[in-house]
TrEMBL record:
This is Olfactory receptor. The keyword Membrane applies. It comes from Ceratotherium simum simum. The lineage of its organism: Eukaryota, Metazoa, Chordata, Craniata, Vertebrata. The chain crosses the membrane at residues 32-55, 67-85, 105-127, 153-175, 204-232, 244-268, 280-299. Keywords: Cell membrane, G-protein coupled receptor, Membrane, Olfaction, Receptor, Sensory transduction, Transducer, Transmembrane, Transmembrane helix. Putative odorant or sperm cell receptor. PROSITE patterns: G_PROTEIN_RECEP_F1_1, G_PROTEIN_RECEP_F1_2. Belongs to the G-protein coupled receptor 1 family. It is a multi-pass membrane protein.
Amino acid sequence: MAPRMSVQGERNHTSVTMFILLGLSDEKEVQLILFPIFLVVYLLTLLWNLGLIILIRMDSHLHTPMYLFLSFLSFIDICYSSSTSPRMLSDLFKDEKMISFISCAAQYFVGCWMGLTECCLLAAMAYDRYVAIGRPLQYSAIMTPGLCQKMVAGAYGSGFLGSLVQTVAGFHLYYCGPNIIPNFFCDITQIISLSCSDPFISQIILFLVCTFVGFNSFLVTMLSYVFILASILKISSVKGSAKAFNTCASHLAVVILFHGTGLSVYLLPSSTHSTKQDKVLSVFYVIFIPMLNPLIYSLRNKEIKEALTSVVKRLEVFP
């Protein structure tokens, strides 16, 4: 589709109304291989995260702060994956992978909202683990249902405001072409580089939001683990130390996976990796991590396994 023409004063301007996504590959054979793989990954993401949410809601033994946070994390992963995967799957069968300006902004807004919210929620979960290990006798008094609800609301609210500011800052710029995004989704850093107006203010706004929401959440998470480690080192028995570490091992794995990949995608200089490497990292960050999170929490979690066994037994009673 040709860019739209608009007249402002006595000057003619070409305004971009559509972006073209290059996608993962332009080779038909590769696309045919990728489609079933990513379709299965997306369906498993929906199945495992939704299943985990239902399991936590059904079993009263899982009505604790840790599993409350985990259910909201699964909801975030569903929304995050759904913001990109369906369009990516449909684009695999298209010769021209075009997305409207508004749709691109909406896709980025939802993805950014969920990404920033996950940063905040992982910080809340890290604090929860610190209280459970460092101050076990006061855990119930500190991690009250009211505080947990406020932490969840704060995570979603911070993510929403941060995403709104970033989306407005990035998409209010003037775009006159080129309109090709070298990725399979709308990435604000790549979109801003296409702008015909000065992106300096928008880049500053993006940096500030990432610092205040993303980096501060990461800092809270790391500080919580410093205190967790200090608390574990105070435990005299090896068995007690191992048990304490196991209570936060899954969360720590998710934190390393999420932040480690995110830092590789957005903070490493572009000169250190190619466009193909960018796409591979983006696929892992956007597509695979939402599928892996519920697995990481479930595979070595005794309480979730017991809850699942209990639910299965109840279902067997009513064939």
